[in-house]
Amino acid sequence: MRTSRGEDGWVLLTSIAIMSLLMLMSTALLSIVDTQSSMSRQQRVRETAFNLAEAGLNAQIFSLSRDWPGAGAVSNPYPTCSAQVSSARCPANDQITRLIPTAEAAGATWQTLVRDNGAAGSASFYSDALVLAQPAYDANRDGQLWVRATATAGEKTRTVIALVRAEQQEEDIPHGALISGRLDISNNGNKIIIDAAAGGGMPTAVVRCTPALLELSPCLGHRVGVGGIPGTLTGLLSWLGRQLSPNLATTGYTGGPAMSAEARARMKATAIADGTYFTGCPSTLAGSVVYIEAGNCSYTGNATYNTAADPGMVLMASGTLYLGGTTVYNGILYHANGAGTTGPVLQLQGNTNVVGGILVDGNATTVAGSSKLNVQLSLGAFRAVRSYGSAGVVQNTWREIRGQ
Description:
The chain contains six helices and 24 strands. By secondary structure, it is α/β, with parallel strands linked by helices.
């Protein structure tokens, strides 16, 4: 009974010691949990900033796929894009932020910009010091641009870059030395006017009309039965052996336009990007794609446009095109005949030589044959007809340049 009445207090002291120890352990555990939570939050913020930057980069590359800023964009460069900039060339803010539906994205900011790679040393290597001062379009005409995207979430900023290349697509057009509504050869001389020897047996001249006796205007080179020309189609075809090489022709051609409306739109966009789009007659026909809306355009000097190794295309929507003198054009002359005329829209006179091919839509007339060979088929010129297609990242150029 004496033990039960003892008041030494050892049980209380032991309880207090145990409770204190548990409190110390709990405090340490809470500190660890708080530290882990803070680190986890920082990691989420960093990942959010990175994901926003990458989303901005991808969205900007998609914009370049639709609207490549070639050398012709000197007066219309790409803007520096952000959530506050409204432009068809910029990613939409909701387009980016809805891809990252996290709490850390609230209040985040982002920016994208496009720069040329024309500075010395920046053709395939990025640094802010080299690139940021460059124009916001493809000034050096190499079909490549740097894209830089930055995003800040909380106190964390991430920046990613990539070199982007414009991919070109070959346009599908009919091949031939001459495809036209009608052909008018302006002399009866014994000389080759159209040479399609490179075609491997394809017709030298293709026309949509059908020759008729005593026709008012030539369908296939000359009026049948007029001016010493034989009075039958068979006779005309035989007679043309002195001017077509090889002597192969197709009449009554039922093919439609050489290019679809969509393909012409792509070529127009390419010319705009390259600075070779004109509402009227340009001073030169040189260029990969020269697009002329309208006009009565005449070139009668001794200029040579493009080269056999690097041919081009002139696409004329409406109007007329006259080449004379000793002009040489390497490439394809294509008249879309938007006005639906049946008269002459393309004339090759003097010592003009087109090394490539002639395409004229509808029932319009091509005039050739004043002095010498005017058209020489080059299949390579047809294969060179290309427009800007998609844009993609150049391999091994994507990287992060700064992380905080």
